[in-house]
Design goal:
By secondary structure, the protein is α/β, with parallel strands linked by helices. It has a single domain, classed as Alpha/Beta hydrolase fold, catalytic domain (Rossmann fold), CATH 3.40.50. The chain is built from eight helices and four strands; from the N terminus they run αβαβααααβαβα. It has a four-stranded parallel sheet, with helices on both faces. The longest helix is centred in the last third of the chain and has 32 residues. The chain is globular and about 65 Å long.
């Protein structure tokens, strides 16, 4: 029982820390997401004016007006940022099965999820963040931070490195933090790695807030 209570307390503390960061982001224009949510966070960050990102308009608002979904920065945790690349990876793992050390890695289920959500590879490619960046379709490049687990078989480190390289080639500022010895979704569970992840996210957010303060002070001085 003491061990069970300790585990529950640690997990609860981790969730409170993550929830606290998420609530903070709402107030300062940041965005955070994990796995497919990480993909969406990056997608909205680089394509904030895309019609598919429009939300319910305010009462009386002109239906033709542009929805501004811009964010100040984005944090993506083990993001499925290249759906078509990940889909091909899954097909290869299914065709050439190898033992997996991740209990939640089920390539057949993940392949079905791709097909059910996107419908076809053309739609997957259209939603690929590195493709958007390489094809010059990004509308904004806010500062971004990505966490990737070293042992992730759900989305590989090579896939995430491709996103980072494309973001930098496009002129954006992005940080990649690799967490050794852990797998997909590790920050959802208690442990030293999840606490380190939360600390790194908080540090990144702190740097963005400091930058905004400096920019505001500089702009005020110039206006005098």
């Amino acid at each position: 029982m003491p061990i069970a209570r300790t585990t529950l307390a640690t997990r609860t503390r981790t969730w409170i820390l993550i929830a606290g960061l998420s609530a903070l982001l709402v107030g300062i224009g940041g965005l955070i997401g994990g796995s497919s949510g990480g993909h969406l966070a990056l997608l909205v960050a680089v394509r904030p004016f895309a019609a598919e990102h429009a939300t319910t308009r305010a009462l009386g608002e002109d239906a033709s007006s542009l929805v501004d979904a811009t964010v100040a920065f984005a944090l993506a945790l083990w993001p499925i940022a290249d759906p078509v690349g990940r889909y091909h990876y899954l097909l290869d793992r299914i065709a050439h099965p190898t033992p997996s050390h991740e209990p939640f890695f089920q390539p057949d289920r993940l392949r079905y999820g791709h097909e059910a959500y996107f419908g076809d590879e053309r739609t997957m490619a259209a939603a690929s963040v590195p493709r958007l960046l390489d094809d010059g379709e990004a509308e904004r490049l806010p500062p971004a931070w990505i966490a990737h687990p070293e042992l992730d078989e759900n989305v590989t480190l090579a896939m995430t490195e491709r996103v980072v390289d494309a973001y930098r080639r496009a002129g954006g500022e992005i940080e990649l933090e690799v967490f050794p010895g852990v797998g997909h979704g590790f920050a959802n569970f208690p442990g030293a790695a999840s606490e380190r992840c939360v600390a790194r996210m908080a540090a990144f957010i702190g740097r963005q807030l400091a930058r905004r303060t400096e920019e505001a002070v500089f702009a005020e001085r110039r206006s005098r």
